[in-house]
């Protein structure tokens, strides 16, 4: 199954946060460990925040 790039980055971001429920994760950490570009990460997290 293929996802749109934004969906892929959103899923990877949520997965990273779920793997570390005991602490806050910085955007820089997610960028480096999950390979999500900074500009996309900000866009994705803004969309996820709206869904909350």
Automatic annotation (TrEMBL):
Gene3D superfamilies: Winged helix-like DNA-binding domain superfamily/Winged helix DNA-binding domain
Signal sequence interval, chain numbering: none
Pfam assignment, any one: Rrf2
Top-level taxon of the source organism: Bacteria
Protein name in the entry: Rrf2 family protein
Residues in coiled coil: none
InterPro entries hit by this protein: Tscrpt_reg_Rrf2, WH-like_DNA-bd_sf, WH_DNA-bd_sf
SUPFAM superfamilies: Winged helix' DNA-binding domain
